[in-house]
Amino acid sequence: MPSANVRGAQPSADRRLSTLVRHLLPSSARTATTTTTTSAADSLEAFPTMASPSSVFAGLAQAPEDPILGVTVAYNKDPSPMKVNLGVGAYRTEEGKPLVLNVVRRAEQMLINNPSRVKEYLPITGLADFNKLSAKLIFGAESPAIQENRVATVQCLSGTGSLRVGGEFLARHYHERTIYIPQPTWGNHPKVFTLAGLTVRSYRYYDPATRGLDFQGLLEDLSSAPSGAIVLLHACAHNPTGVDPTLDQWEQIRQLMRSKSLLPFFDSAYQGFASGSLDKDAQSVRMFVADGGELLMAQSYAKNMGLYGERVGALSIVCGSADVAVRVESQLKLVIRPMYSNPPIHGASIVATILKDSAMFDEWTLELKGMADRIISMRQQLFDALKTRETPGDWSHIIKQIGMFTFTGLNSDQVAFMRQEYHIYMTSDGRISMAGLSARTIPHLADAIHAAVTKLK
Amino acid sequence: MAMSRAAAATGAVTRRRLGATAARSMASWFGHVEPAAKDPILGVTEAFLADPSPDKVNVGVGAYRDDNGKPVVLDCVREAERRITGNMNMEYLPMGGSIKMIEESLKLAYGEDSQFIKDKRIAAVQALSGTGACRLFADFQKRFLPDSHIYIPTPTWANHHNIWRDAQVPQRTFTYYHPESRGLDFSGLMDDIKNAPDGSFFLLHACAHNPTGVDPSEEQWREISHQFKVKNHFPFFDMAYQGFASGDPERDAKAIRIFLEDGHQIGCAQSYAKNMGLYGQRAGCLSILCDDEMQAVAVKSQLQQIARPMYSNPPVHGALIVSTILGDPELKTLWLKEVKGMADRIIGMRKALKQNLEKLGSPMSWEHITNQIGMFCYSGMTPEQVDRLTNEFHIYMTRNGRISMAGVTTGNVAYLANAIHECHAVII
After folding, report:
1. Closest Cα in chain A, distance from residue B103 (Å)
2. Of residues B139, B142, B157, B215, which has the active-site annotation?
3. CA distance A127 to chain B (A)
4. Residue of A120, A143, A287, A316 best to disrupt the B interface, most CBs of B under 10 A
5. Could you tell me the CATH number of the domain that includes residue A442?
6. Are residues B374 and B207 in contact, defined by beta-carbon separation less than 8 angstroms?
7. Do A158 and B305 touch (CB under 8 A)?
8. Where does the secretion signal sit in this chain (chain A) (predicted)?
């Protein structure tokens, strides 16, 4: 039997042996548990080479499947030739293929061939060029915050990593530990901030009745937030709804937030990808920077440069003064070092190469616009297809919403129906990734929506 | 601390009320933030870079240099990158990382023919180099064994303390280094293992202990493993130098293999930063040996739940390099040759440094330079001696007297020996 010195393992080792014994005994003997297992267990000895005391993690349960990534898992298992994956938010071409931008390929090739490229660790804060260029990209090269050296920027692992590092920093150094996130939001947001040490609350955002913004609800909820609370804002192309405030609404939000000293934490995962214009998609952010106030900004290059798996992003903190920015940066390093020491070099090098070369930058903006335009076209085509079918309901939100996702308004029964009958995969909240559509698959999707809406309520 | 924060906040609120919506004065919510202390290791290289002296020597940070003092990209890495570039898309990896990279990493650590791999008993995820692997494990330990501590050797890589602290796992230390002999304090080590409560978690350096370069012998590892069995301790191995220590990856994994033979269900952090020169790519692996396949699936799923709110999924480029090299017999053979080359150069520099010091007529024993193994040599120098080395001789190392042998070359070894000799000569 396993060593008697084992604390806590004895009962579970016994349990395992009992289970084993029960399976080995003829079925008639299985009903008599106690006496049988005791005697049988005595005759079953742990071999010396067997994992003797059972694992300290023996009682651990399997975690549930990630709701978003689980969609692709299910899609991959489906043998139907008609299947369409509208789950995860990665861009697809008209042919349904992932896309590596031409300008990215060129930048990569340049890096590989460059004998003087960095071969070792980046600093904790990442690639300095990349950081400066990223701040310029989102805040604008002429931004007073940048001119005045008030921005602390650190390279992080895409949007997720930037949010986590920012959240950890706030949990340690900011006087308010509550963050308000929009209802709904990207599924990973609450987990990121909770693990960072913040308390998560929500503010009203999406109005199912209009499939648009619940602006009154948003203003009410932010008004009743405690002074100084942190507020998560999607800079553009809200995920999952695709519903963005207008510029006027943004201005009202800004005024309210500044009057209550609410701290803005922007998540920018789609700059350039939403409207096709980098500057237009940054307007909400720049509005807040322009009033001289402080904010946090999590930037991702996953979608707008197609760098998904390279994990490229940046966290910027716009501070009240240059002196504060220096100290803030030093504290950000203390968050990063025990997490992963320093960020991965490859993706950030690609981004820096592109952003610092004006010809490559221009080429990028063209390819980016191409992606955004294709998505906008998919929206129009889907809307038209539903109109043609006279599908009941108002589907104008498809063309009003912006960015990669459409919140269709379909309920989970309808979503399940579409998966079973039409092999269409989306998250159960009815969110579809427009990037997964093409002229070829739109009729199929329109048929499926039509069927779901008419057959199920 | 809380008081001053609250006071700062009140002051800031007052300032903010004066002109809440207009662009105006630079009040800050973060005005109270203190400047953080510089990282002791990375700060050394910063200071080195700033030094204009032509004689300067950097034996600070642990990154390999060739005999010209230049950083190296291995040929096998160059070739792997040539094959990858232009041919792969950059889609997200799964949360747990590259399956292929994980498979190859497990073969390296547990053995090509490991029964544990065949039985699918190892829960493993791709991690952000060694740091990321340790951090995932520390967070996992906190979540599932919230009452556990971690025993960390004295001394250890400074960041180990930061990692388990940020994971909120309480730390204790165990005896390791013996300053008088500049070797292992084996009896102290065994005492601490015996005196720790049953079922304690221990952090062990699999080979090439950082910063001392002092490793237990094979016999000593066997005794440690036996005592771990008696006490039912959990061994967590940090293996950052497999192949880099002796030149032979199988030999460098000996401690791990001994523990596996003895039936321990280990945890292991692997890094490719040094042995493949992939530093900035952040390529590594965390593995935990479980009771059975079902448990391994459960444990892996939980590790993924820790990774998802930290960075979602790990970076693809470094993983592709690792799996391309280890998955191709020719490239793997090339890698083995190159990693041996690096290890041999360092072993050669150890000999040369020792010989130079002995030639200078140093009265002290410098045996420890060649007894120790891996990238680092714990010279035994005091912080004051190190400061002198830096200020007078422009030689940069961490103040604990740790010398990165990778920074030693045939061109600077005599200079280095002379400087060390001078610093010791004065303090008698």
Report:
1. 19
2. B157
3. 10
4. A120
5. 3.90.1150.10
6. yes
7. no
8. none
Residue A434: which residues within 8 A CB-CB, separation 6 or more?
A375, A378, A379, A382, A404, A405, A406
Interchain pair B92, A328: CB under 8 A: no
Same domain for A134 and A89, yes or no, is no
Sign of CA dihedral B393, B38, B66, B344: positive
Q: Classify residue B148 by its DSSP letter.
A: -
- DSSP secondary structure, A330-365, as one string: HHHHHHHHHHHSS--HHHHHHHHHHHHSHHHHHHHH
Q: Which domain holds residue A247?
A: 121-356
Domain annotation covers residue B410: yes
Does residue A62 fall inside a structural domain?
A: no
Q: Which residue of B has its CA nearest to A148?
A: B26
Task: Note whether B91 contacts A227, CB cutoff 8 Å.
Answer: no
| Residues A257, A218, A89, A287, Cα dihedral to 10° | -30
Residue A407 bridge partners (DSSP): A431
Q: Is position A303 annotated as part of the catalytic site?
A: yes
The interface residues of chain A toward chain B in range 390-449, judged by CB-CB distance below 8 A, are none
Q: Quote the minimal CA–CA distance from A324 to chain B in Å.
A: 6
Inter-chain CB proximity A188 and B298 less than 8 Å: no
Is there a domain that residue A281 lies in?
Answer: yes
End-to-end CA distance of chain B: 44
**A60 DSSP assignment:** P
Domain containing residue B398: 40-72+343-426
Domain boundary among A356, A383, A411: A356
Which residue of A lies nearest to B43 if distances are taken between CA atoms? Answer: A123
Nearest to B315 among A53, A263, A346 (CB): A346
| Among chain B residues, CA nearest to A124 | B42
Tell me if B29 is assigned to some domain.
no
Is the backbone of residue B401 left (phi > 0), alpha (psi -120 to 50) or beta?
Answer: left
Shared domain check, A234 and A134: yes
pLDDT in tens, chain B (428 residues): 444 444 444 444 444 443 444 433 457 889 989 999 887 777 788 889 899 999 999 998 789 999 999 999 999 999 999 999 987 889 999 999 999 999 999 999 999 999 999 999 999 999 999 999 999 999 999 999 999 999 999 999 999 999 999 999 999 999 999 999 999 999 999 999 999 999 999 999 999 999 999 999 999 999 999 999 999 999 999 999 999 999 999 999 999 999 999 999 999 999 999 999 999 999 999 999 999 999 999 999 999 999 999 999 999 999 999 999 999 999 999 999 999 999 999 999 999 999 999 999 888 889 999 999 999 999 889 999 999 999 999 999 999 999 999 999 999 999 999 999 998 875 44
Structure tokens at A149: 């050296």
> B107 with B193, same domain?
yes
Q: What total of structural domains would you count in chain A?
A: 2
Residue B280 near residue B98 (C-beta atoms within 8 A): no
State whether B66 and B131 are in the same domain. Answer: no
Residues 43-82 of A with CB under 8 A from B: 48-58, 60-63, 66, 69
Look up the CATH number of the domain holding residue B58: 3.90.1150.10
Cα(A276)–Cα(B117) distance, integer angstroms: 48
Q: Quick check: B86 and A109 CB within 8 A?
A: yes
State both tokens at A232: 């998560």
One domain, residues A85 and A222:
no
Is B164 one of the annotated active-site residues of the chain?
Answer: no
DSSP helix/strand/coil, B183 = strand
Closest to A58 (Cβ–Cβ): which among B21, B131, B291?
B291
Candidates A381, A308, A362, A363; CA nearest to A98 is: A308
The answer as to whether A408 is a domain residue is yes
Nearest chain B Cα distance for residue A457, angstroms: 35
Whether residue A331 and residue B36 make contact (CB cut-off 8 A), yes or no, is yes
The model's pTM is 0.90
